[in-house]
């Protein structure tokens, strides 16, 4: 069983391109006004609408710090917060913004015993 999180977008091509090119998401399904993307089992979609929604955080989980650092490199000028350890949650994370201003987080759990799959 799985789920999909959808977001309204005014700039579908730019937003889909951002997640494909910078975070290596793949297109899972194209529909008339929506694109569903996948990143390691995480399904999320963007539907063309009159107004974009930019609330929430899209979090991409990597197996280790190296994965977060590589994502940071691919995100380039979209990064708004460089990678750092967050002791509160025992994670390593960085933040970026997509073309419409949605918050994008790349993180890795530092505790090897954490398994969210």
Automatic annotation (TrEMBL):
<protein>
    <submittedName>
        <fullName>Nitroreductase</fullName>
    </submittedName>
</protein>
<dbReference type="InterPro" id="IPR029068">
    <property type="entry name" value="Glyas_Bleomycin-R_OHBP_Dase"/>
</dbReference>
